Automatic annotation (TrEMBL):
The lineage of its organism: Bacteria, Pseudomonadati, Bacteroidota, Sphingobacteriia, Sphingobacteriales. CDD domains: SPFH_like_u2. Pfam families: Band_7. It is a single-pass membrane protein. This is Membrane protein. The chain crosses the membrane at residues 12-31, 37-56. The keyword Hydrolase applies. Keywords: Hydrolase, Membrane, Protease, Transmembrane, Transmembrane helix. It is found in: Membrane.
Length: 285
C-alpha cells in the first residue's frame, strides 16, 4: 500500500528566466548562422527545460513518478519546476457529489424497497487514489452502491407490528446516515478517499407492494385513533358515573349502570351522529 509523500519542488520562475535566455541564445545563433549551436540550445530548451514546468491550481495536486517509481505529491499551489523526465498525474482535491441511482433491494424483513443516497467525498491521499485502485471515481461509485445495499439489508423500512425500539430506515435518519458514512469511510480508505457526508436521498416501497403497505399504514392509523377514542370514552363514562354518585342526582343499580355505560360508549365512540330514542317505559317493562 502506497503512503503519500508531500514534496516541495523549487520555484519555476528562475528556470523560466533560463528558458527565455536559452531561447534568445538559440535565436542569436541562428541569426549568426551558427545553426549547430542554435539547434543544440533550442533542443535543450524544448526537451530538457520546458517539460519540467509545473502549474498547480488551488485544491489541485500533482502525483510525480520517475521511471516507474513514486517520487511524491505536490499539493501547494503555484509555479514549480521538476525533473523533465518525471511523469505527472493531476488529482483534484475538491469535494465531489455522488448522487446515487435508485436501487431496488430487500430490507431486513424482506420487503422490496427503493433506496438512493447522496455522498460527499474527496481525495485525501493521492498516492492510494492513483496506485491502489484502477479508477478511483469508478471505485467510489461501486463501493457506495454496495454500502447502500448492505445498509438496506440490515434495517427494516418501518417498525414491525408491536415493535418500536428497532432502528428503521424511515425513522432513524441520523443513525442510519452515521452508519452509512462510517461504512463508506471503511470501504473507501483503500483508495485514499474521505467521505465528508452521506445521507439517504430517496426511500420508498417498491411499486408492487406500495399500495398494500399504504393500506397497512392507514389501518394502523385507524386502530391507533380508535384506541385513543375508546380510552377517552371510558374515562368520560367513569367520570360521569362518579359525578352522579357524588351529587346524589340519581341512584342507579347495576343493570341501569350497564345500560348507561352502553349508551354513552355508543355516543362517544361512534363515527356518525347518534339519533336519540325517547324511552317512555322502563328497563323492566
Amino acid at each position: 500500500m502506497y503512503q503519500e509523500k508531500i514534496i516541495s519542488p523549487p520555484s519555476g520562475y528562475l528556470t523560466f528566466a533560463l528558458c527565455l535566455a536559452l531561447l534568445g541564445a538559440s535565436i542569436f545563433c541562428f541569426v549568426s548562422e551558427s545553426f549547430l549551436w542554435g539547434g543544440i540550445l533550442l533542443a535543450i530548451d524544448i526537451f530538457l527545460v520546458f517539460p519540467g514546468f509545473l502549474i498547480i491550481n488551488p485544491n489541485q495536486s500533482m502525483v510525480l513518478t520517475l521511471f516507474g517509481k513514486y517520487i511524491g505529491t505536490v499539493k501547494a499551489d503555484g509555479f514549480f519546476w521538476v525533473n523533465p523526465l518525471t511523469g505527472k498525474r493531476r488529482v483534484s482535491l475538491k469535494a465531489n457529489n455522488l448522487n446515487g441511482q435508485q436501487l431496488k433491494v430487500n430490507d431486513k424483513l424482506g420487503n422490496p424497497i427503493e433506496i438512493a443516497a447522496v455522498v460527499v467525498w474527496k481525495v485525501n491521499e493521492t498516492a492510494k487514489a492513483t496506485f491502489s485502485v484502477e479508477n478511483y471515481m469508478q471505485y467510489v461509485n461501486i463501493q457506495s452502491e454496495a454500502a447502500v445495499r448492505h445498509l438496506a439489508n440490515i434495517f427494516p423500512y418501518d417498525h414491525a407490528e408491536g415493535e418500536e425500539t428497532t432502528i428503521t430506515l424511515k425513522d432513524g435518519a441520523e443513525k442510519v446516515s452515521e452508519l452509512l458514512e462510517n461504512e463508506l469511510n471503511e470501504r473507501l480508505s483503500r483508495a485514499g478517499i474521505e467521505v465528508l457526508e452521506a445521507r439517504i436521498s430517496h426511500l420508498a416501497y417498491a411499486p408492487e407492494i406500495a399500495s398494500a403497505m399504504l393500506q397497512r399504514q392507514q389501518a394502523t392509523a385507524v386502530i391507533a385513533a380508535r384506541k385513543l377514542i375508546v380510552e377517552g370514552a371510558v374515562g368520560m363514562v367513569e367520570m360521569a358515573l362518579e359525578k352522579l354518585s357524588q351529587k346524589g342526582i340519581v341512584e342507579l343499580d347495576e343493570e341501569r349502570k350497564a345500560a348507561m355505560v352502553s349508551n354513552l360508549l355508543v355516543v362517544l365512540c361512534g363515527d356518525k351522529h347518534v339519533q336519540p330514542v325517547v324511552n317512555t317505559g322502563t328497563l323492566y317493562n
